[in-house]
Amino acid sequence: MSFMALKHLHVTFVAISVVLFILRFFWRSIGAKIAQQKWVKIVPHIIDTALLLTIVGMLIHWRMWPWETAWLLNKIVGLVGYIVFGLVAMKASYRWLRYVGFIVALSWIMFLLHIAFSKQAIITF
């Protein structure tokens, strides 16, 4: 697979992952029955796994590693932040906490997009 095809596949999985996250949060917030369907709980894991595989493929192509490249390390920090607050958004017992988790998870997505486009680290270690 060419690098451009891998990159486009990666961007496609990012878009699908974010849209599914927003949809799932919306469905959960309004108490929609679709939020409880099995596919709604399984498909995001499949998409996110494919997303991570495209990341690994691009890292191998670039021969770059997060522990050697500051902006890639920032991407890992952002990904962990997105996952943690995404879990809060989906699983918190209190409605207000789910909304806080959702807003913070979206903030981490914006952070990740900034890093992806600028290739500049914001957080220094």
From TrEMBL:
The keyword Transmembrane applies. The keyword Zinc does not apply. InterPro entries: SirB. GO terms for cellular component: plasma membrane. It comes from the Bacteria. The chain crosses the membrane at residues 6-27, 39-60, 72-89, 96-117. Keywords: Membrane, Transmembrane, Transmembrane helix. Pfam families: SirB. This is Uncharacterized membrane protein SirB2. It comes from Pseudidiomarina indica.
